Amino acid sequence: MTVRIAVAGASGYAGGEVLRLLLSHPDVEIGALTAGGNAGSPLLAHQPHLLPLADRVLEDTTVEVLAGHDVVFLALPHGKSADIAARLGDDVLVVDCGADHRLVDAWAWERWYGGEHAGHWPYGLPELPGQREKLVGTKRVAVPGCYPTVSSLALAPVVAADLVEPEVVVVAVSGTSGAGKAAKTNLLGSEVMGSLSAYGVGGTHRHTPEIVQNLSAVADRPIGVSFTPVLAPLPRGILATCSAQLRPEAQDVRAVYEKAYADEPFVHLLPEGLWPTTGAVLGSNAVQLQVAVDPDLNRLVVVAAIDNLTKGTAGAAVQCMNLALGLPETTGLSTVGVAP
Amino acid sequence: MTVRIAVAGASGYAGGEVLRLLLSHPDVEIGALTAGGNAGSPLLAHQPHLLPLADRVLEDTTVEVLAGHDVVFLALPHGKSADIAARLGDDVLVVDCGADHRLVDAWAWERWYGGEHAGHWPYGLPELPGQREKLVGTKRVAVPGCYPTVSSLALAPVVAADLVEPEVVVVAVSGTSGAGKAAKTNLLGSEVMGSLSAYGVGGTHRHTPEIVQNLSAVADRPIGVSFTPVLAPLPRGILATCSAQLRPEAQDVRAVYEKAYADEPFVHLLPEGLWPTTGAVLGSNAVQLQVAVDPDLNRLVVVAAIDNLTKGTAGAAVQCMNLALGLPETTGLSTVGVAP
Amino acid sequence: MTVRIAVAGASGYAGGEVLRLLLSHPDVEIGALTAGGNAGSPLLAHQPHLLPLADRVLEDTTVEVLAGHDVVFLALPHGKSADIAARLGDDVLVVDCGADHRLVDAWAWERWYGGEHAGHWPYGLPELPGQREKLVGTKRVAVPGCYPTVSSLALAPVVAADLVEPEVVVVAVSGTSGAGKAAKTNLLGSEVMGSLSAYGVGGTHRHTPEIVQNLSAVADRPIGVSFTPVLAPLPRGILATCSAQLRPEAQDVRAVYEKAYADEPFVHLLPEGLWPTTGAVLGSNAVQLQVAVDPDLNRLVVVAAIDNLTKGTAGAAVQCMNLALGLPETTGLSTVGVAP
Amino acid sequence: MTVRIAVAGASGYAGGEVLRLLLSHPDVEIGALTAGGNAGSPLLAHQPHLLPLADRVLEDTTVEVLAGHDVVFLALPHGKSADIAARLGDDVLVVDCGADHRLVDAWAWERWYGGEHAGHWPYGLPELPGQREKLVGTKRVAVPGCYPTVSSLALAPVVAADLVEPEVVVVAVSGTSGAGKAAKTNLLGSEVMGSLSAYGVGGTHRHTPEIVQNLSAVADRPIGVSFTPVLAPLPRGILATCSAQLRPEAQDVRAVYEKAYADEPFVHLLPEGLWPTTGAVLGSNAVQLQVAVDPDLNRLVVVAAIDNLTKGTAGAAVQCMNLALGLPETTGLSTVGVAP
């Protein structure tokens, strides 16, 4: 089977990563590549690492250009996906890397993003309990945010097993590519190299409600999430430090994680003594986890690493495409990072 | 007044930073510079940024070499300061950048560092309540650890005012110089650039008891501290994200910080809307703070930035020297960072 | 003596560095700070490292605001200085960090920058033969470009002594701050971290004619310069590798450099065996040099390091202000870098 | 066909990269993995990015362990390969990533490396004229050094066509992984981040004679090479700036490069207007080239980018294995980089 795919937003980071992965996917043929302001220019001017696509020129992002493909990946600014998706037929698999269809509650969407809620689609985090089966055969996928991916996978097992108090603290340090490719002064190399900064402090980052949604769903009751993202000087990678108060009766937390992820191809609880690094998952779809319990506080600390562009965005998109199309879930994806 | 100073451990990062600062201190004359394995080699081979000391050669770290100075800075591996300090006379001001004399409790020392406790000295964090007066005129100073400095200053005001529950969570992201200059594979540039890692997870980092000690002292009751350090790819700087559950009755937390640090020359609560970055304090003795309250959780989040080698080590050492000698506290120190 | 200074372009990197240096200059009072699009906003929003100026607000860059100061530093985009300078009186010292008044030849200006030549001012590289005396008492200074500073100082001694063939090759690796603070996609942290790129290849960088001008002047005949700049992932610093074919009769090149810079406070030929690094000059006004002769080719290779924002821009500006005002040349400047 | 391979030196950077590539090579089965001091420890402790090999333990580097494989990759310190290779049978394909068998002349070996010359093997740079055929079916491959790879490919076309004067200047900026994984103070993250340094200046780097050998061979006469390596703060990548005086009669240099590399799968002359970056080739086996002629000097400048660990070492090793075994040359290799 060869599926023909299109990528809308092919000049950005998410779109570029989708293409990087699909270039080694055996069942895919790369069709239309579209952009907004960059339409008309060669793809290579924006994605110089995609040499096999050196002859491609970016087209305008229109329904006409995108139609006629089996799969359309949308890597567009928030709020831009819903309209296009609505006009692509129900026979087209639409994988939305943006936020438009992630949140279930309309009021949450309006509070955090503003404007009308476009509705919610099957959520592309198959490793959450009960989630994989919703993705098999679907024609619409909402790819999770990068921070929700790593935070939810880090905490879901103990939250699902009701082993921790219902308030968790997540501090996630991220590389800069998660902030996108739009030129902003605060994201200049001169500003970010040699510096660390926090942003969205006090629960104001838009990924907060998505983490709350995920953890509350697996817990089947409200979970409070204190979430702070920190920007660090590297292009890719998120390292999340997630902690929660263990219930007094909680035993052998490590075994809970071992069991939860034993059959997952991409989520790896590291052997004791090794700790996740983002360098080890660079360019891969792997999630590396490690757990510890602070003996003085009986507090669980989970450290998790992903590549925000791969498992955090484009890798998840491809993984979900595989599920939606009935392909082996790991096709075209790797757990081997590029290090050092 | 000109005081004659010596630095033991002058080829390392802490010793180099002490010298960098003292080179612009108007009341200081730089005397003996000593090292361990690097003794006999030119200082410039180890500290190529200290051009005015280009003619200096490192001597052996012995009491004989260090004696005869008004002030001796010890920038030695943990456990090496106590013996030397004991043999320097009581008329010499000894400023210990190491951990030997930071912890009050002998059992805590033994648990976290091992071996016999050398006793505790006046703790060099003058911005903690009641601490400055203990440093005026002292002949012995225990310079705080870098993580305890930033964490304690971030949380002391609300802990002292009993506005938060007695368990706090600190995730502090640090540059690599805090790990020192000894050659280790995991600290190679190839390993740390492009990667993030956590270490000392689960409350196992030796700075944990020092933060507990500081916060418990200002609270006058035990404070639990969940502390996780994260290593990021930059040479200098710590950004600490510190959070705690506000008591229901807590009001106007910002005013508490404003009042606490109104007269402090080095601790700056930023105007609302600006957030600390480590780049802004690079090479300076400043602490930049900002506070937020998560409205959904009523949880306080404080973000604080320091340069781990300056306010986190050598700047504090010079600040305390000034206090001990009766000099203006800010002499030779700056709140101006080197950015970008 | 206290001189009152103004900075036009205070929200950019050059303007910020001028202010950083002047904050520790004993003879200066900081007056008006102006900007273009950033006028009206607090300086601290753009220069968060300049805490002592936290109460300052940026004004519009107009002659009215700048007038009435003893010294005006212009840190404006190329082409913007000439008009303002012409309208500031001859009694005001104007130090132009831009390119407008660097080139002597009008045709060279038109070829490389376009538009009308504004004329040339005394060139602010006092370490070039015969240059210092032109700066003493001047009311106008053209601060050199960063690449010309390091390249000219690296090669002037042997070019002046006619020890090399009249064609030199310079490859200079630079941090990103030299490209300024305007938001551009190719300067985003995500783009520059983990990557190296060349630009202005084939002699097309605008600093080429300035290096040619300097070296030809000291040689008193035309010198060809093959100049290639390379962008590397660090905020500050230029390391220039400069080479030239030695004439057969050339002897003891090292002694030529020793003699040329023996009395220069900022230019340091390192002891044999040590090589310049940009880290060692970070934030300082020092130039570090080292020389070698390739025995197989009889080719001289000079390696030189500067901080592009300090000696490469703002440090030179302050150094020239000192000369122009009759102050000691090194006032407010340092040869001590911030390392690591 | 499945070939069984072993890697000696599997805990280092070259060995790790060989394994990373072979994990996606369809014709390979990974056998013994050996190390020196790290023998006995899990591979994952040293190569945390190689999750599919998480169950492997490093064995001692002995002939007994390495024997019985179809292919043995040697990623050992210089001088350690010859003895082992001699004791592996002639039926085993030995691919030496070290320097032992690169140089043809025994005197050159002795001058640059010291000790006895182990002889030379077919040189693994198939893109050099006449080189590919020497690798087909060979049982011994000397993998080129990283700097010689990029420098030789950048200059070979014009040197072979006798279009330039016989002295070339190469300044190559490199990431730190080329310096290996042995813990050294000058390679610590704290030292290399935020700094640039030159080393091996004056033609003293051991890769100089290898570049001379390659270019002289394609020219069939001696070519002088002024080579200076520069260390920059990134883990991977080399950007080489290579220049040479064009002969007056040289015409249309670009066409020479187009023709030389038209059929090469890994060497890409970029479209005019685009310049190579190391970020674009990260983790790939691609070489990106661009050329310019300085009109004032009639000097050719070629800029070339590779990943030093991939095309510069392990990718070349796999490429040569493919040739030696009669597999398609590009098997298991990619021209798609991991960016940003």
Automatic annotation (TrEMBL), chains A, B, C, D:
InterPro entries: AGPR, AGPR_AS, AGPR_dimerisation_dom, AGPR_type-1, NAD(P)-bd_dom_sf, Semialdehyde_DH_NAD-bd. Pfam families: Semialdhyde_dh (PF01118), Semialdhyde_dhC_1 (PF22698). It catalyses: N-acetyl-L-glutamate 5-semialdehyde + phosphate + NADP(+) = N-acetyl-L-glutamyl 5-phosphate + NADPH + H(+). It comes from the Bacteria. Its main location: cytoplasm. Its EC number is 1.2.1.38. It is found in: Cytoplasm. The keyword Amino-acid biosynthesis applies. One of its GO terms (molecular function) is N-acetyl-gamma-glutamyl-phosphate reductase activity. Catalyzes the NADPH-dependent reduction of N-acetyl-5-glutamyl phosphate to yield N-acetyl-L-glutamate 5-semialdehyde. Belongs to the NAGSA dehydrogenase family. Type 1 subfamily. HAMAP family: ArgC_type1 (MF_00150). This is N-acetyl-gamma-glutamyl-phosphate reductase. It comes from Umezawaea endophytica. The lineage of its organism: Bacteria, Bacillati, Actinomycetota, Actinomycetes, Pseudonocardiales. The gene is argC.
